[in-house]
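User: Could you check the structure of this?
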Amino acid sequence: MNKEINQPNILLIMPDQMRGDCLSLEHHPVLITPNIDEIGGQGAHFTKAYTTCASCIPARRSLLTGQFPATNGMVGFVGGHPIKSDTLPQLLKDNGYATALIGRNMHQHPYEEGYGFEKQILGSTYIEDDEYSKALDKAIPELGGIRGLGISCNGWQAKPWTYPEHLHPTNWVVKQSRDHIKEIGGNQPQLLVTSFYAPHPPLIPPEYYMNRYLSQDLPEPAIGQWEEPPPNNALGLGVNSNRTVLKGEALKAAQAGYFGLINQIDDQIYWMVREFKDMSIKAKRPWIILFTTDHGEMMGDHYYFRKCEPYEGSSRIPFLIQGSDQLGFKKGLTNDTPVCLEDIMPTLLELAEIEISNNIDGKSLVSLLRGEAEEVRQYLHAEHSPCYSDEQAYHFITDGEFKFIWRPFEGIEQLFNLKSDPNELINLTADEKHEKKLTELRTQLIKTLKNRPEGFTNGSELIANQKYPGVLPGY
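Assistant: Sure, the predicted structure tokens are below.
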């Protein structure tokens, strides 16, 4: 094979904070996402994809490096620590790719470091002086930027975007991406990351999308039998609190805002995806499209909001991959074994015929995509150090069917059967019928944590209440 000709063009579409169940392909009761669904429907849909550290900084660091949090040193939400290993865009760039990031920044340090993206057109919504912010200020100076909308960039408040739709951050990012695709010339392989801040708050879909979901009966949050509401039903904690009791109009508005932003992304990517494919066909080059996110959103499940939780709403993510016929992928593939963001780097490196170094933890999914294998790992470990509180910290192990959660400060354990109880309503740790599975997954977590500096285990049992900083020593 001629490596130079056969290196595929790559389009990574990456919303922020999008739940894995928020697709019509996932049989969501109200969401309409035919264009995102098509990527999985005509390619592969990984139904047990997880972020290994459910907040933006560590999740994106793992995507960029192909390394688990404990390998790249970032096991929680902490800024100010540069990446010390090779990144996916840098390796692609070093091997002939043109690399571009358009939209939401990768939330790494230092801010101005591209980490291999030679072109960046940034529109992160919450940043006050990037390209999108300047364009919005120029078009609507009286608004006073996104903050002029009057709602938080982390909270559950929602209101419709009533300004011209082309100025909405989602539309702006797609327009910049389409313009970039049209400008591509020559035979150089391409990496384009189209990165949205939505559906991360502020929950500001255009009025059409907000009203579409306000007019429907929306699903109630999942509330586990094991959970209790926060004191005083979370009154007085503020809109940014990770603990909340969302109900009534506040719940419906938050859901309508969140679902509306996802529906808007789906509509917007239609022409961008087709123009990317057409550009690749014209260049006689294979293409691959990936759709995923950094982490999910609890949206009231178990009285939680935001992320940094081990539960499905926060940790399970959409993960869809489609490739051109030259790549030999099976169409309509559904895989329910554990995969993660770290797997993207080795997958793309293999397809681009670039050597995969030994310090990459992720596994190439090419054999799964071609129907040559059924799984790349038996277990997947995920974690997060304290962010909102010590109690919020977690470790979990999943085999795709069951999930074992350990809270490292209180020592609380939970076991869920994800197949029969996908909403994690029933904790099975006291169920004798599941004692064998509980022991299996606990033993696997002990094995995973055995050499960690925090002292989570002595090799035979888990040890609670150890110091758990967000950055490991040496990073």
